From TrEMBL:
One GO CC term, this protein: ATP-binding cassette (ABC) transporter complex, substrate-binding subunit-containing
GO biological process, one term: maltodextrin transmembrane transport
Cross-referenced Pfam families: SBP_bac_1
Position of the signal peptide: 1-21
GO MF term set: maltose binding
Name used for this protein in its record: Extracellular solute-binding protein family 1
Keywords linked to the UniProt accession: Signal, Transport
Source species: Truepera radiovictrix (strain DSM 17093 / CIP 108686 / LMG 22925 / RQ-24)
Length: 445
């Protein structure tokens, strides 16, 4: 891969040239809110500035990168971006974009493919993320760091009860959970089999998308823009999940978010948990009965033997404001932040998962406290994106309709076939998109 110009290579080649008049430019980068995020981004900004001057598009620049602290809430940050765009403001040149925002914000972000080197850069990133960030052929975000759903399991309990390893299918998970709960509940009546995020919110969209995709039932709306939610596989997936409630999962799971599930699992009261990678990072230095010594992480199960595991993508991207006064320089800065050097720095100093596949075999990363990242590579290779791009700008409404329908099935207020049939009609009304036909149609339709 051609190294980004921002690393100083071109500046060295042109050192001593008096033909280029150096220009002073300030690029403002709106980053995260936490103390560690600010510390890391400011250090990365300094790394870029230390390589000054930069030659970009035949011009020489002395670049100052100013880091702006964004709002704590992702919703508040999204609202702030909309204010910038409505005013066509250049208040921030580089914006960190949630994985579900590219479709909604695309018209206000530059097409990164128009800038030299970007198309080559993104070939190193996970394809599913690049596809998610591409709207009508325009790349509106360079992947910054990623996230995906994982299956956590108590390796000590699986061994104690004679299981060779984690489950590969949901049916195997049910069998293991029932066996272990039966054995453990005599001494611990609070013990349960499997905890996950079942409340009616975005987290349930992520969980249910994983179930349906792992059964071969599609991704709600395909990246090609076809509604594919009402089919036999999707119905079977929701019927399976509804059967967990009150059996291998507590009845209260229909009100759980991420931290509800994590607290139960880390307290030693569950054998399996679906959660994001952050939960494992919290176990690294944990004290107590549940630590990284007896917890394993793996891909979520497939719907059936020979099926395909699926993990919903999370994470953030770097977008460049269309109204920036210096978009070419801003793209150059973003390329550095998303480069191998930039992503490795964020991984080692902030614990954020890279989107560059080769970094999962990097010797420096493997020799660090984050060596466990390497175990997650198969997860990202099988990750699926939420349909935020093909349903833009109505993804939030689509997601709400989806998780509301799924929650009704989990609560037992409706059956899966009825819920998904009604959902298909709702999505047609919301999006105007066509319904996928053919082999996935429900047999009884």
């Amino acid at each position: 891969m051609k190294k980004p110009l921002l690393l100083g290579t071109s500046a060295l080649l042109l050192a001593g040239s008096s033909a280029l008049a150096q220009q002073d430019v300030t690029i403002r980068w709106m980053a995260g809110n936490t103390a560690i995020a600010m510390e890391t981004t400011q250090a990365m900004a300094q790394m870029y500035m230390d390589a000054n001057p930069h030659t970009i598009g035949g011009e020489e620049y002395n670049v100052t990168v100013e880091v702006i602290q964004g709002p704590e809430s992702a919703s508040d940050r999204y609202a702030l971006y909309l204010q910038f765009f409505q005013a066509q403001s250049a208040e921030a040149d580089i914006l960190e974009i949630d994985v579900i925002w590219p479709g909604d914000l695309a018209e206000h972000l530059v097409d990164l493919y128009e800038y030299e080197g970007v198309a080559e850069d993104v070939q190193a990133h996970f394809p599913a993320i690049v596809e998610n960030n591409t709207v009508d052929g325009r790349l509106v975000g360079i992947p910054a760091f990623t996230d995906a759903g994982l299956l956590y399991y108590r390796s000590d309990l699986l061994e104690e009860y004679g299981f060779d390893g984690p489950p590969e299918t949901w049916a195997e998970l049910e069998e293991m959970a029932r066996t272990i709960v039966e054995g453990e509940s005599a001494d611990n009546p609070d013990f349960t089999g499997f905890v996950w995020q079942g409340q009616a919110y975005e987290g349930l969209t992520c969980n249910a998308l994983e179930w349906i995709a792992s059964f071969g039932g599609g991704t709600i709306v395909s990246q090609e823009g076809q509604i594919e939610v009402f089919n036999d596989q999707a119905i079977a997936a929701l019927e399976t999940a509804a059967g967990w409630v009150g059996t291998i999962s507590p009845q209260a799971v229909t009100g759980f978010q991420e931290e509800d599930a994590r607290r139960i699992f880390t307290a030693g009261n569950a054998v399996f948990m679906r959660n994001w990678p952050y939960a494992y990072a919290l176990l690294v230095d944990a004290e107590g009965d549940v630590t990284t010594e007896n917890v394993g992480i793996t891909t979520l199960p497939a719907g059936e033997e020979g099926g395909t595991p699926a993990a919903t993508l999370g994470g953030w991207q770097y977008g460049v404001n269309r109204y920036s006064n210096n978009p070419e320089v801003a793209v150059d800065v973003a390329r550095f932040m998303a480069s191998r050097e930039g992503q490795l720095y964020r991984a080692l100093n902030e614990g954020l998962l890279p989107t560059i596949e080769a970094l999962y075999e990097d010797e420096e990363l493997l020799g660090s406290p984050y060596a466990w990242f390497a175990d997650l590579l198969p997860v990202f290779q099988s990750a699926v994106a939420r349909p935020s791009t093909p349903t833009a700008p109505r993804y939030n409404e689509v997601s709400r309709a989806f998780f509301t329908a799924v929650h009704g099935v989990l609560m037992g207020t409706t059956d899966a076939e009825t819920a998904l049939g009604e959902l298909e009609f709702t999505l047609e009304e919301l999006t105007g998109l066509p319904v996928a036909g053919g082999a996935q149609e429900v047999a009884s339709r």
